[in-house]
């Protein structure tokens, strides 16, 4: 069956929405500075419903966007809320407590886990610790996508909202990377893999300052071309780059330069998809929404954000400022690489796409694992939630103190892609601009 991008029934998730339901509210946002037809909806997982079980973050906000389809934007916003909920510690799944040494041969190998440099770990404010194979931590079961066998995964890598953590569990970057929900379980896994691969590309591009090739305009769809013209007429310049890594999953990186906006002077977006045109459109849509996010914060709060830069979005606001514009010169000042026409598209069929991407990961010596995060509430409306864990890839961290600069992937990937490789002391010193 061919994958459908737009579901047939856009009210199928309404069973999650009520004052006491998983999604406590969903509504359209009033936006400024966005193209006509751009629908933006916000959803909340909040009190007094299931949010009482969420642990350290008791209020989650998600969003959905679409062109000329408010009903689709609303549907996506609800699905995004469900995804955030699945990432919290609400499933009650079976876990064991053991050391990696005790689980030798039965767990995802610790030597694959991303790691920071000694200097990063030594910083007094570094929030994570090196993984200790002799420390007892919690593990949950995942599915090895190559062998089809069960494998134990550290619970903190399987569930970023894990509660009651012990110090030994603070070795991982706790973000929503790899989480996805979908009405098709296989498509959920595909999209989870896409996100891990996209964020690997984001991290490598930024830290290694890769001079990416621009995407050949002939590869872009009509909507993207219209959006680029819309931006141009408002003194915004769009640059779309091919950030496809050695894994061959089409990935686009977008930079929008707004010379007359001092706070959102440079904003970025990125996406992976089945083909480069799809990835480019999603990356541009993501970047177009960033100025709304930046301008939402009052100017008076910016000094506090700059001082901490610990929450999601803090570095985006900081790097958006005109004073940091030169940090993007490695991308914007031209490259001798010819425009890219992209890789061959991935299959539309979810099972075929899954097989193709898993095969590429296996050939690269990587071990992808899928963890089922489907709660009862999500199953009741036909959703499957998963988290795809691929520790061999480079994490994208929004905390500037943890960049995992000792992970081999950070240096292997540019070499495999034909770029020069920066040494640890030469890596990009600027914070990650991607939210």
Automatic annotation (TrEMBL):
InterPro entries assigned to the protein according to its UniProt record, in alphabetical order: TOMM_cyclo_SagD, YcaO-like_dom
Domain YcaO positions: 64-435
Cellular component GO terms held in the UniProt record: ribosome
Keyword Magnesium applies: no
Keywords, comma-separated and alphabetical: Ribonucleoprotein, Ribosomal protein
Pfam family, one: YcaO
Superkingdom field: Bacteria
Presence of the UniProt keyword Ribosomal protein in the record: yes
Protein name per the record: Ribosomal protein S12 methylthiotransferase accessory factor
